[in-house]
Amino acid sequence: MNEKELLELLETNANLSIAEISAMLNASEDEVKEKIKELESNKTILRYMTLVNWEKCEREQVEALIEVRITPQREVGYDAVAERIYRFPEVRSVKLMSGTYDLAVFVEGKSMQKVAHFVNTKLATIEGVVNTVTHFVLKTYKKDGVIIGDQEEDRRLMISP
Amino acid sequence: MKNMWEEKLSPVVKSIPPSGIRKFFDLVSETRGVISLGVGEPDFVTPWHIREAAIYAIEQGYTMYTSNYGLLELREVIRDDIYKNYEVQYDPRAEILVTVGVSEALDLAMRAVICPGDEVLIPEPSYVSYAPTAVLAGGKPVFMQTTMDNNFVLTPEQVEKSITPRTKVLMISYPNNPTGAVMDRETMLGLAEVAKKHDLIIISDEIYDKLNYTGEQTCMAALPGMRERTILLNGFSKAYAMTGWRIAYAAAHADFISAMTKIHQYSILCTPISAQMAAMEALKNGDTAMKKMVREFNRRRHLVLQGFKDMGLPCFEPGGAFYAFPNIEVTGLSSEEFAEQLLQEAQVATVPGSAFGDAGEGYIRVSYASSIEDISEALRRMGKFVRRRGVFPKKVSTSSGTDFVQKEGICNNV
Ligand SMILES: Cc1ncc(COP(=O)(O)O)c(C=O)c1O
């Protein structure tokens, strides 16, 4: 069984049954179960999540991208500062970037004030953080490979030769 | 107003029976909540880079006629693609014609070579257009039945047996619609020998060549001595999910191409330029998206095969295209009855095998060009449907008392 193919399948749809996966990969159900267990226990598979279009629900939520410039520290480089940042539950993702800033930090909060407060009091004050630039997200068009509110549907004839 | 012009219509046209698919299409349209596994085109839309390239071309003012043959640059990339895949060389200036689908190319090929009364050998079950285009060109279709026991592959012996002094053309298409059968190189070499021996022209519809999951695809024109007597048809509809663009090509000896172009220039003039621009993009940059789609089809192929195994319908393992062709005779129903009742009782649309010729009786065509969710749900419904007709997977008891499905007993060749 191709491990990468299994992961690709689960990455796009974690809801597939073991029976479906084993049929698609032409492997036995036991093999697939075993493999998934292995990938879970060695933390290749970290978590199964659901991609939600929150615009469909009444939910007050704002998202911001914060560019963070930091002074790398001896021995640990960027990692120590990154860790102090990513441990905050408000922080959705953190990536080390090439280019004009160092960390791309995605933060979520109930309101702009809350996010701004978080940046001012928690993020910007961390030792090693040189400066921050906050960009609030106005609209998400596509997330994790999925177009939000995609209008493209199956327009094929029901039967064709 | 009934039958007002009936007697004035061309008898040749009247001789062509109404399409079995059309009839079924009407039935399906009247039914609600249908999951369709009856579709002969990819469920993917054309990859965005191809659509975007066509939009850009239109913005740039590419809105005019092209050469009758099609844009030279497109013919050149077609040449490159054929050469890359099969190492057959065609001269893009004289041996490649860009057409409005393989559908048009097929019609042109038939009309270019057939004289009244010429016989055209056609394996069955097969794509619905072969016999009618042969008839419309004045030819006489001669059918050769392929069977599940033979993996729906035509044998050289069968061809040999069907040959008469009037035989002019052998029509083949592998991977095959509706069976999904692929043809191994050895059998193809056998057919090539027969064609050479009897001086036949082969029209080879290789539109599914890129959807071959066995890793071995042979091009008829690539076999020794066959480039000269093969009219190779291929297109963009299936591999690049471009059915609606209506574009394909024929590659063959200059004599064939110039004859076909004569018809094409007066009936079509040229293939729409926007489609040509899109096709160019597909061949230049479409490999990644195409291969991804092929991998996805392959997974679904396994899924539907497992489904038929689990429900006890014998099905041979299709090596290509996106169809499975299970045998439904165990239900005691004919193809049409099965497809109709399945539609009415379970709201699953398939195409009766008989729509693809008499040899398709006893089978249904199941297209797996559908989402995993739809395929799984359709298989569940179909499973229930056949159980109600007393069909169960064969089971054997093991000493521990647990039942398991005996795989070999159910699915040939899997
Ligand atoms: C075997 C075969 N040949 C030709 C065609 C028609 O292709 P095109 O869209 O290029 O006209 C189809 C479409 O279903 C097909 O299955």
Short description:
The complex is a heterodimer of chains A (161) and B (414). Chain A is α+β, with helices and mostly antiparallel strands and 161 residues long. Chain A has five helices and six strands; from the N terminus they run αααβαββαβββ.
Structural class by helix and strand composition of chain B:
alpha/beta
Shape of chain A: extended
CATH H-level superfamily title of the largest domain in chain A: Lrp/AsnC effector binding domain/regulation of amino acid metabolism (RAM) domain
CATH T-level fold name of the largest domain in chain B: Aspartate Aminotransferase, domain 2
How many domains of chain A, as an integer? 2
Fold-level CATH name of the largest domain in chain A: Alpha-Beta Plaits
Query: What's the domain count of chain B?
Result: 2
Number of helices of chain A: 5
Helix content of chain B: 40-55%
Task: Write structural notes for this entry.
The complex is a heterodimer of chains A (161) and B (414). Chain A is an alpha+beta fold and 161 residues long. Chain A folds into two domains: 39 residues; 82 residues, Lrp/AsnC effector binding domain/regulation of amino acid metabolism (RAM) domain (Alpha-Beta Plaits). Helices cover 31% and strands 21% of the residues of chain A. The longest helix of chain A has 13 residues. Chain A starts with a helix and ends in a 14-residue tail after the last strand. Chain B has two domains: 165 residues, Aspartate Aminotransferase, domain 1 (Alpha-Beta Complex); 238 residues, Aspartate Aminotransferase, domain 2 (3-Layer(aba) Sandwich). Chain B is 40% helix and 13% strand. In chain B, the strands form four sheets. A seven-stranded mixed beta sheet of chain B has the order 2-8-7-6-5-3-4, with helices on both faces. Chain B has a three-stranded antiparallel beta sheet with strand order 9-12-11. Chain B has a two-stranded parallel sheet with strand order 1-10. Chain B is globular and about 60 Å long. The chains are: A alpha+beta (161), B alpha/beta (414). At the A-B interface, α2 of A face α2 and α11 of B. The complex binds pyridoxal-5'-phosphate. The site of pyridoxal-5'-phosphate (PLP) has 13 residues of chain B, from α5.
